[in-house]
Amino acid sequence: MRTQVGIVGAGPAGLMLSLLLAERGIDSVIVEARSRTAIEQTIRAGVLEQGTVELLKQCGVGDRAMTEGARHDGIELRFRGEGHRIDFAGLVGRSVWLYPQHEVLTDLIAARLAAGADIRFECSDVELREVTSDRPVIAFTEADGTRVELECDVIAGCDGSAGISRKSIPASVRTDHFRAYPFGWFGILAEAPQSAPELIYAHSEHGFALISTRTPTVQRMYFQCDPEEDAEAWSDDRIWEELQKRVAGNGFRLIEGRIFQRSVLPMRSYVCEPMQYGRLFLAGDAAHTVPPTGAKGLNLAVADVLVLARALESFYSTGSTERLENYGATASRRVWRAQHFSWWMTSMLHLDPHGSPFDLRRQLGELESVTSSVAGSTYLAEAYTGWPLSL
Ligand code: FAD
Ligand code: DHB
C-alpha cells in the first residue's frame, strides 16, 4: 500500500492533519490502535481556544461546536474565598469555547469518513521503518489479522504521549525535557446544574479545584490530589466535601449531584526535541505534554498540525523540503510558550505538598498581582484564549 502522508493516531492531531491535508489535495491514511467507539467515548479536554474554533469552522466541522458548545468570555480566579473575574472579551476581545474533545473527534471522524478518508481503526503491532529514507513505512496488523506495509513520503507521528512514534527518534539524537508534579487531578462528571456561569479556578489552603461544565445538566470538576490516589476509594460525599471546602467563601456552594465518572490524572510537562527525524514528524501529545491547568493540550495539537500541513503543502507544490525542515523550529516556539503558561498557571494555583507558608503567601501575592493589574490579567487572557495560529 502507498500514500503520501501516513498518520499514526486518530486523536485531535491525526484527524485534524488528515482534514487539513485533504483540503490541500494531499492523500493520507490514518493508522489507529483504538476502536471508533472508544475514541468517541473517552472523556478528556473541554476548552477550545478561539483560533481552534475558527479553524474548525473554516474546515466545515464547526457547526455542532457552535450550536452545542458554549462561548465563555471569561473565567473566575478564586482565592481567599473571593472570586475575581478575568474578562477575556473586555481585555483582549477574544473568547474560548466549552465543547468536549470527544465531540470534536466525533465530528472530525464523521467528516473524514463522509469524504472517503482511509482510517484504519483497531490496528496492532504498529511499527515505523526506514524513517530516515524518503520512503518510510508504517507496518501494522489490521483488526482482521492482515499485516499491512504502508509506504509513505512522510510519516506524521500523532499517537499521543504513550505512542510509539517518538521512540523512533534514537536516544542519541533525542532530548526528553520532563517534569513531573507532586500532585494529580481527581476529575469527576456529575449530574447537576451549573453552579456558576463561568469556569472557576480556585486556589485554597486545601489545594486547587477547577469547576467546569459540559451541558446544562452535566458538570465537570477537578481537584488536586495525590497522584497515587485511588479514585474508587472515595465516596460521593467525601468528593463533594473536598470540592466544597476548596471553593468556599462569600456563601458560595456548588450544586451537588450524582457522580457518574471519576479518574485520577497525572500532571507532567514534557517536550521531545527534535520534533522531526528524517521523514518522521511528531505532532501533539506525541511531541509534548502540558499539565491541564492552562487547557492547552488539544489546542497545541491543532496548532502543530496546521504548521505541518502548511509545510507539506509547500513540499508537494514546490518539491522543496525547506519548510518541512523548519517544522520543529516553527512549532516549538508556540510549544514552549504554552509550556510556560501551563507551568505558570499550575504553580500559581496548586498547593505544593512540600511547600512552606512562604510559598502559600507568595502565591496569594501573585494572584493579587494578576487580578488587580490590567497588564497581569491581559497576559492571562491572551495566553488562555490562544495566541494567533500564524505564530
Ligand atoms: P491523543 O488524543 O492522545 O491521540 C493519540 C491517538 O493515537 C489515540 O487515539 C491513540 O489511541 C492512538 N495511538 C496511540 N498509540 C498508537 C499506536 N502505537 N498505533 C496507532 N495509534 C496509536 N487539552 C486542552 O486543550 N484543553 C483542555 O481543557 C484539556 N483538558 C484535559 C483534561 C484531561 C482530563 C486530559 C486527560 C487531557 C486534557 N487535555 C486538554 C489534553 C488533551 O486531551 C490532549 O493534549 C490531546 O488529546 C492531544 O491530542 P493528540 O491527538 O496529540 O493525542
Ligand atoms: C477543562 C479541563 C481543563 O484542563 C481546563 O483547564 C479547563 C476545563 C474541562 O475538562 O472542562
From TrEMBL:
<dbReference type="Pfam" id="PF01494">
    <property type="entry name" value="FAD_binding_3"/>
</dbReference>
<keyword id="KW-0285">Flavoprotein</keyword>
<dbReference type="InterPro" id="IPR050641">
    <property type="entry name" value="RIFMO-like"/>
</dbReference>
<dbReference type="InterPro" id="IPR002938">
    <property type="entry name" value="FAD-bd"/>
</dbReference>
<dbReference type="InterPro" id="IPR036188">
    <property type="entry name" value="FAD/NAD-bd_sf"/>
</dbReference>
<feature type="domain" description="FAD-binding">
    <location>
        <begin position="2"/>
        <end position="341"/>
    </location>
</feature>
<dbReference type="GO" id="GO:0018659">
    <property type="term" value="F:4-hydroxybenzoate 3-monooxygenase activity"/>
</dbReference>
<keyword id="KW-0274">FAD</keyword>
<dbReference type="GO" id="GO:0071949">
    <property type="term" value="F:FAD binding"/>
</dbReference>
<keyword id="KW-0560">Oxidoreductase</keyword>
<protein>
    <submittedName>
        <fullName>2-polyprenyl-6-methoxyphenol hydroxylase-like oxidoreductase</fullName>
        <ecNumber>1.14.13.2</ecNumber>
    </submittedName>
</protein>
